[in-house]
Amino acid sequence: MNRLFLLLFLLSCFGWAQEKIYIDNSGNPVSQDKASLYRTISEKQGIYHIKDFYLNGKLQMDAFSKNKDFRGIEELVGKFTFYLENGKIEIQGEEKKGELKYKMFDEKGRITTLYSKDAKDNEISQSYYYPEEKDNFNIVYFQENGEIKKIVLFDKDLSKIRIERFTQDNGNILSHYYDERGKLIGSRLTKDDDSPAEGTEVEYYFNPAQVRMITQWDNKGNITTKKEFYRSAKVFSERTVRQKDTIITFLNPKKKKMGELLIKEGHPYQGVAYNLDESGVLQGKEDYKLGILSESTFFYKNGNVKQKVDNDIHGSISKITYFNKNKSQKGIVSFRNETPYEGYLYDNLEKNESYVFYKEGEINEIKQLDDTNHLRFYKKVQENGEEIGDIYNKKGEKEFHYIIKKEKDKDSYDIKTTISFKQFKNGKEIHSGVIKDGILSQGSIRLNNRYYENADYIYKIVDNKIVKDHFYKDKIFKTEILYLDYKKEEDSVFHPYLDGFEISEEDFQPYMNNPTFYHPIMESSNRY
């Protein structure tokens, strides 16, 4: 009896009876089958020790609160820690004498928030954002009581290369630019009324970040000097003003002059302009004669010529000559009225050999490869006028084989189009049929929804009608029906009840990234 009394006394002082509660992600009590977490609570002297666990038993939160049913960090006391399911810390902080401080982290362990609030409810925070694209800075917002005081764009270290932006009370924005060592190299004010302001702006390379271009402006909004740099930090181009004209001089990595461009009234006039790509490698050049772009040349990363674009005396493109990486000529495509007329139009020969072949101004053949060099789409016009196409998925497996026949209607002169197709999955035929003038007339087909992931449709012919089943995550949620004798009911061209039943070649979703034939290098007025 005395031992039992002693045990109860010790539990009241040191040990605590624990509750186990199943909860959802918002902390609401739920049944076990609907739970996302479970919680244990123990109490000592009015303070609750609360632990939340993932259903696999891993700790999700370890915290203390005066409120058993707390709903936010503001109700916690002392030290607290939240964990991701992978075991990494998500939130860690402490409440002490009315002051609250905590840090938040993402799944990669990067800090996303720094927060502090004093006993008088004054808040200071830093919010971090990490873009997925490698060609951009990370961003951190500095706030006081909910108002943004400063924005910093940075690479990896807030004390090194970065841009700091301050919003002033009058709406103007002051930007400070820093180099790789963290040295201030330029500042410029952007006025709220867009009026000119003198100062210095800096542009950067990324991954890793490095100074790319420094531009100085006068108080009239004119560029006084501009320098662009290689990755080696050597000068690539330098701008100088001579009376009313501007000269841009281009240098190679050995500091020798490659060429010079004369700018008149803000536009290229005479000479040659070179261009670096986003990684600082020579990408191309443009030749100007009396204000007309006469020739553009593009280079492989190894420095050899990739393609030359010739223009006529009016500046309109006349032909493109392509070259292999070993300098041998690959092909020529001619142009008429600024559109391809005869030959192979390639995409980016640095990556793959995707092309569109033109014959007398018409597309005769298309071959498209993706960034992993897998064939995704091939189509060719046959001698009899039929178009035969094949579509492949990311794995290189064939998904569609189809034949397009086009005939002129003798009475109306309209073009009648028939698509015969076969659809495949894992090497096996799963659907086949015929589409006439955009409407399925035989067989069945499954098509993806272009706008919603995991949504698709199956069209099939059943007893003289088209049945269209709508799927989401492979479950039918809607069915529509169109009777094949709809034309007997209405002879007008527009049939409102056809909406959602029309199918075109584009609905097969061929991988299309058609080559472009015009690559302006120096056209942007920002460069002058």
From TrEMBL:
Protein keywords: Signal
Signal among keywords: yes
Signal peptide: 1-17
Domain of life of the source: Bacteria
Name of protein: MORN repeat protein
Organism: Capnocytophaga gingivalis
